[in-house]
Model the fold of this input.
Amino acid sequence: MSGIVFFKTRNLPLMREFYHHKLGMKLWLDQRKCLIFSYREMLIGFCQAETAELTGTITLLYNSQLEVNHVYERQRDIATTEPKLNSAFKIYHFWAKDPEGRDLEFQYFLRPEETEELDHRTVEILNPDPAKPKLLLTRMLPDRSMQELLDYFEVSANTSQRDLTRRELMMEISNKEALICLLGDKIDAELMDGAPKLRVISNYAVGYNNIDLRAAKVRNIAVCNTPGVLTETTADLAWALIMTTTRRINESEKFTREGKFRGWEPLLFLGQDVHHKTLGILGMGRIGQAVARRAVGFGMKIIYHARVAKELDFAAELVDFETMLKESDILSLHLPLTDETRHLIGERELHLMKKSAVLINTARGAIVDEPVLIRALQERWIYAAGFDVYEREPYIPRELMELSNVVLLPHIGSASLETREAMGHLAARNAIAIVSGTQAPARVI
Done:
């Protein structure tokens, strides 16, 4: 059984703009004087009338607290509350209004262990010592890195299995001299102003688009990252995505586990060859070069697009952007996320690619216009895609997860024990160096 909840509206075009374009609901049916939108399993309709119906609440359900937080960041302009825990109903939610004044609730039902966890302080001082400088660690690091930090700092660490909320981060950073944070932690001017003693932000990542560099520079706060140590590991993962997407490994593995394999068949899970194809690299930096270098063993032609030609130890041709899009059999993205690169791969670019092309992204999710990518995969503008990063991470649209021609990984490009320990060591050395007044090994500003 299915059903539709209808509301009367005085302004049908406004409802289309808000629910379809702003909230991202699908237009399920357009009957001219009545529009029906779909969101996951819910159908909601609006019919043109002289008087709008404003009673009742439209509740949109999400899969995690983090997802609610990310939706809140996108919908702040319509929110009437901040995300918060309601212990009585065991939900995490925030409220908003649609343009006509209807109540909207963005909600996640907590699991019992999450309710208990949120009711308690998640940051602990691991080694109380007033004589040491104070550091906030937003998530626990590998053991060897932790020992370096404990030797030099009094470490306050988030020991839970979730990210700190904005309120928790603001509260805990107030008296700290150093911060080691992750890409998911938004470090902006407001947070820096709430931490007058802060001297260094050490990002446990190569990228730093989560940090307001201009605000840090004005406040004389050093920003550091962890380049170099994860190059080869991330290149390995990019190749795992290349092989998995081209040879349809995920589909084949699922088919086999479900007991459907009945023996060799001539047409069973036909994929694409990788050897002797053309690999396009967008962003021929450290990781881009490492990915391309591996392609030599496959006898591939390597083309790349960059602002200037690179001195390389393998054969590769510098081409313009459109040529790379048109000629690449496999296109691998290795760019930082900036204002210039945001949505660099959109509708025009995906239409320029071959219908047999594969798109790989281990860089930053927002380099690709995700809703357009979903259409491209649904309508087969390109053959397949492999992604380790997402535009609104950790949120992944259900439409993307339902596609069989995309491989989705949970941002594990650097996830080997050796590499994560090396990243932790570098992040710790950066923080220690700045606070001790010496030169940091990987300082951005």
